[in-house]
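In this section we turn from sequence analysis to structure. A common task in structural bioinformatics is to predict how a protein folds when a small molecule is present, because the ligand can shape the pocket around it. The inputs are simple: the amino acid sequence and a SMILES string for the ligand, here flavin-adenine dinucleotide. Study the lines below before reading on.
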Amino acid sequence: MEPSKTTDKKVLVALLDAMTSLDHDAIVVGAGPAGLLAAATIAGNGHDVIVLEEHRSIGEPDHCAGLLSLSGLRSLGLKPPQDVILNTVRGARVYSPSGNSLLIERGRREAVVVDRHRFDMWLADRAQDSGAVVITGAQVRSLNMQNGKITGVSVQHGGATEHYRAAIVINAEGAVCRLSKSVGLPIVPRTNKYPAYQYEMRGAEVDDNVAEMYYGRQVAPGFFAWNIPLGDGRARVGLAAFSAAKTRLNAVIEHHPIMSERFSRASIDRTFGGTVLVGMPIRKTYASGILVAGDAAGMVKATTGGGVIIGGMAGTIAGKVASLAISEKDCSERFLERYQMAWRSLFMSNLRAMFLAQRALVSLSDQGMDVLVRGTSELGLLQKIEREGDMDMQWGIIRSLLTDPRAIRLGLRVIRQLSPISKNSFMWHTRG
Ligand SMILES: Cc1cc2nc3c(=O)[nH]c(=O)nc-3n(C[C@H](O)[C@H](O)[C@H](O)COP(=O)(O)OP(=O)(O)OC[C@H]3O[C@@H](n4cnc5c(N)ncnc54)[C@H](O)[C@@H]3O)c2cc1C
């Protein structure tokens, strides 16, 4: 395990116990936000839980832009310390393909940009403070099943294979989805996974307080490019699309009329790639002895690919249901169904609305996107979005817009610009 601030004698003793004892109340696979919040909840309820993380260091490799809403963090009861927070953002500017833009800001701090490595380390410290044991360099190779119930996991750890048993397993393995499939649970389909690429740059000409999203079929077909400011002219500049994320990102930095102004003279500190999820959650997230949470269950906001807050909520609910199941000595599929009912009632309508909104956006032609951005400010809809919008739970504002006569008028104008999705849209020539 990586040393951390709270790795004191007590934690080391617990770790040694956990590594020699192979029976636990709960096992969590994956030390990302979903897994660590699940583990903290289970340990906080007095149960014995271990978290198995395949990498040697928590939070690495980091592939995330790290933009988290303050309201979402509050709803998770999280107040990250200053050394985790790199910057604060008060709004977002959305660019249409022709360069029209909308600035959405409510005159208050809206979101923070975190260092994901430190954020995940901090979550691991919290979980350990509650009594969870985090074991790194431990790759779960398989979920073990007996009479139709998950009974534990087989782990590759320090050159040996170990078999751990538990009343319940929480699968929070992230977007890779290797494990759920082996026990017959649905997984996130490949078509819902878009390649992403990102640079951390310095010397950029950016507003340090405003995040930016750039839409357009030439820019990022199927998704968008972003600029997340880190302060002092530094920024995370990234892009996700149907394909060729790195090539497209290089192209927009060099040729996009606005992005090239911002970044073509900036230097690259760090590069990172990853997979952004864009679809709906998997149909079933529980079975006898197992719950699935976070990216492993496709729980993301399809409009942005953001999954830390939503995954954290699901992880917390999974932790509560697992605790109850352990106390009641009932980890049957029937008992665990309440997990799916709980997360669905908390945020499924939001995920569905965001999914439909994302589908609608990507099916627009560039002209349609221009009409949408121009019309939103011309018709006074921006104020409504600023008043009623929420970074994570977007169903409320989408529902409100659907019944607003101005939005309906705009929708009819935009619908005329629908065009079939093309995965082979034109790309600028690129150095990459
Ligand atoms: C380019 C990019 C930018 C993003 N930007 C944002 C953003 O700004 N805001 C936001 O909210 N979200 C963002 N996301 C999405 C966000 O990163 C994920 O939604 C979030 O990390 C999901 O958390 P999780 O705990 O479900 O999974 P992860 O954070 O992926 O954690 C899963 C963990 O499980 C471990 N693991 C996997 N398999 C095994 C195994 N077999 N055994 C043991 N351990 C295993 C992994 O090593 C990993 O540590 C972004 C994603 C990408 C790709």
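The longest strand covers residues 160-171. As an exercise, try to locate the residues that line the flavin-adenine dinucleotide site and compare them with your own expectations.
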